[in-house]
Amino acid sequence: ELQLVESGGGLVQPGGSLRLSCAASGFAVTTTYMSWVRQAPGKGLEWVSVIYSGGTIYYADSVKGRFTISRHNSENTVSLQMDSLRVEDTAVYYCARGLGPGIVLDFWGRGTLVTVSS
Amino acid sequence: QSALTQPASVSGSPGQSITISCTGTSSDVGGYNYVSWYQQHTGKAPKLMIYEVTTRPSGVPDRFSGSKSGNTASLTISGLQAEDEADYYCGSYTSSRTLLFGGGTKLTVL
Fold first, then answer.
1. Does any CB of chain A come closer than 8 Å to the CB of residue B38?
2. Minimal Cα distance from B91: which residue of A?
């Protein structure tokens, strides 16, 4: 059965760091690309980052230089290291699996909430 | 990069058809046939409904269809049902090799 389970969310102060993890089952994260997407409370979806099977990585301008996506093949997980967090980074963060060309996200986790507040 | 433009809300009665538009630029919607649509019920994760402009994933009813003309893509839902009430987001691949979402459209089934 396909599953994506995010963890690591919580409350952090502005300027702090947090590491999110996404555990996959039912498929290997090395066989496709994986993305993180976030959704601020009451707002729309915002794409954050993608890591391709070959290791190529892209980020949204809003997180470039502050967030780092990585993949851990032996654990079948994908992580998002978030540094220099800002209040506007507060959101539910979803992990999603890629399908074919063009960053199409065909399977999503339930998300983990990150709150940045003093 | 600004979000793709979607209407904030649309509504229709059961059995009717509705169309949601998604307008971008030649650097995203108009430049690639990589437009996708996602359905999100309140408190749930998004679900892929259409990809590559017109393709439905397995299990998505054929009441859902997609199209594109120039810089504007559209999602049409025919034979509207109560369970279609949700938020809908378009997404497009961009020339920066990123994914850009629309602002979302709230569909109300009257």
1. yes
2. A104
Asked if residues A81 and A68 have their Cβ atoms less than 8 Å apart, the reply is yes
Q: What is the pLDDT of residues B42-60, one digit of tens each?
A: 999 999 999 999 999 999 9
The angle at the Cα of B59, spanning B53 to B65, to the nearest 5 degrees, equals 30
pLDDT of residue A102: 87
> Over 80: is that where the pLDDT of B10 sits?
yes
- Residue of chain B minimizing CA distance to A49: B98
Angstrom CA distances, A98 to A39, A105, B21, stand at 18, 5, 24
| Residue B82 CB coordination number (10 Å) | 8
What's the Cα-to-Cα distance from B29 to each of A8, A9, A36, B35, rounded to whole Å? 34, 33, 21, 6
Contact: B32, A102; criterion CB under 8 Å: yes
pLDDT averaged over 10-residue windows placed end to end, chain A, 118 residues: 97 98 96 97 98 95 98 96 98 96 95 98
The answer for A29, left when phi > 0, alpha when psi is -120 to 50, beta otherwise, is alpha
Q: Using CA atoms, how far apart are residues A108 and A69, in angstroms rounded to an integer?
A: 17
Q: Which two tokens stand for residue B15?
A: 């059995």
CA gap A48, B108 in Å, rounded: 29
Interface test with A, best of B68, B98, B101, B105 (most A CBs within 10 A): B98
Q: Where does chain A show beta strands of DSSP type E?
A: 3-7, 10-12, 18-25, 34-39, 45-51, 57-59, 67-72, 77-82, 91-98, 105-108, 112-116
Q: Does pLDDT of B1 surpass 80?
A: no
